[in-house]
Design a protein that fits this description.
41% helix; 290 residues; single chain; Multidrug-efflux Transporter 1 Regulator Bmrr, Chain A; alpha+beta
C-alpha cells in the first residue's frame, strides 16, 4: 500500500496474523483480535477482509488446516486428535473442510500428499486496489424503513427476499415509488448478517400497525442519520464486495475520518432484472465520526 496510513492498517493486520500463528491452539475471538489490532471490533471483520481478501475466521481455519496437513504427514497422531487440535468437533467435519481446501481426504493426504493444493495455500490473496474510488461526504437525515432481517447463509437469502417482496407488494411500496436498501450488520462469525429494507412514507400517512406482528416478519426501524461517506458503484452486484473492501482498506485510512459503529448501508437505485446488470447503480454508505 502506498501511504503511511494504509501501511499502518496493514501493520496492524500483520500483528493480528502473528498472534494467530502463535495461538492456533487457543480460542480466537473477534473481540480479542480487534483489541490486539487497536481497531473497533464493530468493523474489524471488514477491515481484516479488506486488507487480506479473506475473512478472519477463514484465515484462522486455513492456518489450522495447513498445520493439520503437516501433522498428517510428519506426525503419527490419529486423525481425530489432529481434528480436535484444529478446532473441529468431529473427524467428519474436519475431513469435509480438509478436502475442500486440499482436494484430498486427510487419510489420502497422509498416504500420498499432493503438493499443488498445499502450495496454493501459502499465498494469501490480497485484494486488488481499486484505481478510481470517488467518495462524497454527506449529512444523511434519518430514514424510516420497513425491515426484514436475514441471518445465515446466502444460499437461503432468496427465501427472505421473496417474503420481503410479497410484503412490499401487499402494501403498494414498489421500487419506483419507495427507496430500496440493504443493511449490512456486524457479524461475529462468517454468517451473512444482512437486512432488506424499504423506505416508508411518513408515519402520519402510513399505518404503522401493519408493521406489528405481521406474518412475514417485517418490522419498523429508523436508519440513523449523520455523517456518511458515499461511493456510487455502477455495474453488477458481484462487484460490491470488492468496493466495500476497498473503501475500508484504501479510502478510509487516508480520509482523516473514523468509522462509526453503525450498519453499512447499500441503496439500490435500480434493480435487476428490470435493469441490465452493467447499468445497475448502488450507493454504498459508510457511517463516519466527525
Amino acid at each position: 500500500m502506498s501511504s503511511s496510513l494504509e501501511n499502518d492498517l496493514t501493520a496492524k493486520i500483520q500483528k493480528v496474523l502473528a498472534h494467530i500463528d502463535q495461538h492456533l491452539d487457543e480460542p480466537l475471538s473477534i473481540e480479542q483480535l480487534s483489541e490486539i489490532a487497536g481497531l473497533s471490533k464493530y468493523h474489524f471483520h471488514r477491515q481484516f477482509t479488506g486488507v487480506m481478501g479473506i475473512s478472519m475466521y477463514k484465515m484462522v481455519q486455513l492456518k489450522r488446516l495447513r498445520r493439520a496437513a503437516s501433522q498428517l504427514v510428519f506426525r503419527q497422531d490419529s486423525i481425530i486428535d489432529i481434528a480436535l487440535e484444529a478446532g473441529f468437533d468431529s473427524a467428519e467435519a474436519f475431513s469435509r473442510a480438509f478436502k475442500v481446501q486440499f482436494a484430498q481426504s486427510p487419510s489420502q493426504f497422509r498416504q500420498h500428499p499432493q503438493r499443488k493444493p498445499w502450495d496454493e495455500t501459502e499465498v494469501i490473496k490480497v485484494i486488488e486496489r481499486v484505481a478510481e474510488l470517488e467518495v462524497s461526504i454527506i449529512e444523511l437525515q434519518p430514514i424510516w424503513v420497513g425491515v426484514l432481517g436475514h441471518d445465515g447463509p446466502m444460499s437461503s437469502f432468496y427465501q427472505t427476499l421473496q417474503r420481503f417482496i410479497q410484503w412490499r407488494k401487499q402494501h403498494r411500496l414498489p421500487p419506483t415509488k419507495s427507496r430500496t436498501f440493504n443493511l449490512l450488520h456486524q457479524s461475529n462469525d462468517d454468517s451473512s448478517a444482512i437486512s432488506v429494507a424499504v423506505g416508508l412514507p411518513n408515519e402520519q400517512s402510513f399505518n404503522a400497525d401493519l408493521l406489528v406482528n405481521n406474518e412475514l416478519g417485517v418490522t419498523a426501524q429508523t436508519i440513523s442519520g449523520g455523517c456518511y461517506a458515499v461511493h456510487r458503484h455502477t455495474g453488477s452486484w458481484d462487484g460490491l464486495e470488492s468496493r466495500v473492501n476497498a473503501l475500508f482498506s484504501q479510502w478510509l485510512p487516508n480520509s482523516g475520518y473514523q468509522i462509526r459503529d453503525e450498519d453499512l448501508l447499500l441503496e439500490r437505485l435500480n434493480l435487476y432484472p428490470e435493469t441490465p446488470e452493467n447499468e445497475l447503480i448502488t450507493d454504498i454508505y459508510l457511517p463516519l465520526k466527525k
